Amino acid sequence: MTTEPPMGGWIKVSTMRRITALLIVFVLVFSLAPATHFTFALDSTGITIDGNLNDWPTTLLLNDPIGDGKWGTNNDIRTVGVYSDGNYIYIAGIFKKSGWNNLGVILDLIERKGAKDTKGHPWGRSYSVASGDIDIMIETWESDLRGWLISPDNTFIDVTSHIKRAYGTTDDWIVVEIAVPLSIFGDIKNPSLKVAFVLTGGSDGALQWFSDIAPDQDVPTWNEGGGAVAPAIITRFIFWSPDQPLELQIVDSNFSYEKYLLERKATHIASFITMNSFYGQRKFNESYSRYESIKDELKKYQIAPEVEARIEEYDSEVANLLELYHNGLSTINIPGLAFVGAFRIYRAYIGMRRITLEMEEILENAKERQYEKEKHLEELSKKLTKTIDGNLDDWSVQPIAVDTEGYGQDGANLKALYVDYDDNFLYIALTTDNKASWRVAYGIALDYKDGGYTTGQDSWGKKVSFTRGIDAELYFFWNGEFFGNPGTGTITSAQLTLWNGNGWDYKDLQWAGFYAYTGGNETGLQTLEIAIPWEELGGKPKEIHIVAYVTGQGAGDSAVDSLPLQEAVMDKQPGDEWGDEDTFTEFASVSII
């Protein structure tokens, strides 16, 4: 929703005494507990840059009167919007323009120092702001845009290449969506924003010409022909803050950001006291009750000694949290100490909740007998005849499949596939020629008995089929770079999946076998070493047929490289291989003695 500012700015003088008193308590409490941070979450709206505003919350869009443009209906602003998710500033517009006119976006990041006017504009635009400054200006038309970062000395730096944009139409109006990365502004996170939109023409030095402006305002000296004495002075703005992420407000030149923050802090403090008077007390008691019931339930299971020691530490922590909670109860209704009491209850609840969640995990592990599995794996590890560490120096066998053609992509490039075995384990190793860390999945399909999966989407939803029946798959998710997100440069998921005749049974590989790897953020996966107990595969077969491959990161993706290398991953251009459908016809075979 949009709201008009009250007289004289955003905060009344009569409220200042109450706000000051609350802030003294606020500062006092946080100085007593410097390690605790009191923050408010900012949720993402899920906006997609596609030239369609249907995924924008209506509260983040401001409708401008249609037909109020000085130059008629073909140079008019209909709708504008702004939002930030902490990574990008999102900008929306619906407008009409003719000739060389553009929709101009004049944006002020309150935490950054910019210029008071646009006198350094490469195209000669001449605007200034009555309050604040200008940090970036964007001009967009029906198919593209230009954007400039503005320094305090009016230097305009072209940042067009960093800006994402998409265009569409609704009726005969142009629709634009823009995403400006916050990284171009330096070390600024979740900034508050002031923005104005102008349907701009040029400037002759004496006058700046523009047809429409949003939010609506009386620009000084703006005449009926659309000219205002240069620089044209903008006095009203759309204001957005991460503190109220789903609201837009209209502010004028009397707006004080400092007073706004004081008012918001006072509101948060009052809400915080109320919340902990009711919700905080109830949730603490629920968490404490659950903690006690988990302790009773754990008595049914055999618990490892180190876990028992951890539960004893929890008991000590819970005793301290109970004391803190009761201290909070004793002060939350005392005038002048209400916030202190609320904060004690809040800290007690947060601590109790953390411990209860960790106890839930201990209980779940016990139910799944993971501690017993750990002991079993420890015994199995003593039977390994290779050191599973990602280093293949102790491998004496030759690879069963090698890429001799140098086929592959920078972050999806398999080199060699190795297989070995002993009486207890099947050993598999992969090496790559990766030169980049991409977000991909590495799959290994095994055929060692009758039946098996052949066609459709496999255990991880990949569009890969096989001419042999697949009895088991190994999958590893490499969390590398994906559209600017660098990822962790590690394997974050590893599974053994077994075909049961109708579907797949899934096992976390850390409980079903052993694996290790080398690689990182710079070069992606380099080597992968795996040991699977024969018992997990139903026994030691006479022969195994195997194919390894790399797929895209998501369900519905297909393979882009394989060992043995084959036509399935080479029948399209490399960039088109990610989303087609692949059928593997060639397998490496190993006889088991």
Structural write-up:
It contains 6 helices and 30 strands. The protein is an alpha+beta fold and 593 residues long. It folds into 3 domains: 42-242, Sandwich (Immunoglobulin-like); 262-367; 401-591, no CATH class. Strands 4, 6, 7, 8, 11, 12, 13, 15 and 16 form a 9-stranded antiparallel beta sheet that branches. Helix 1 (16-32) packs across helix 2. The longest helix is centred in the middle third of the chain and has 42 residues, at 257-298. The relative contact order is 0.08.
Number of domains: 3
- Work out the number of β strands: 30
Mean pLDDT: 89
**Based on the structure given, which CATH architecture of the largest domain is correct?**
Sandwich
CATH topology of the largest domain: the name is Immunoglobulin-like
Q: Kindly name the structural category.
A: alpha+beta
Task: State the end-to-end distance.
Answer: 74 Å
The Cα radius of gyration reads 32 Å
Helix percent reads: 10-25%
Estimated share of beta-strand residues: 25-35%
* Individual helix count: 6
Low-confidence stretches: 1-44
Largest sheet: 9 strands, antiparallel
What general outline do the C-alpha atoms trace?
Answer: flat
User: For the record, what CATH class of the largest domain applies?
Assistant: Mainly Beta
TL;DR of this structure?
This protein has 593 residues and is an alpha+beta fold.
Name its key features.
single chain; 593 residues; alpha+beta; Immunoglobulin-like; 3 domains; 7-stranded antiparallel beta sheet; 30 strands; disordered N terminus
Question: How do the helices and strands line up, and which of them pair or pack?
Answer:
Blueprint lengths: L15 H17 L28 E3 L12 E9 L3 E9 L5 E8 L17 E3 L6 E5 L4 E6 L5 E3 L5 E7 L2 E9 L11 E11 L3 E8 L12 E3 L2 E3 L2 E5 L2 E8 L5 H42 L6 H27 L6 H30 L2 H12 L19 E2 L11 E8 L3 E8 L7 E8 L16 E3 L5 E8 L10 E10 L4 E5 H4 L1 E7 L3 E10 L9 E10 L6 E5 L18 E3 L3 E4 L2
Parallel strand pairs: 5-14, 21-29
Antiparallel strand pairs: 1-2, 2-3, 3-10, 4-6, 4-11, 6-7, 7-8, 9-10, 11-12, 11-15, 12-13, 15-16, 17-18, 18-19, 19-26, 20-22, 20-27, 22-23, 23-24, 25-26, 27-28, 27-30
Helix pairs in contact: 1-2, 2-3, 2-4, 3-4
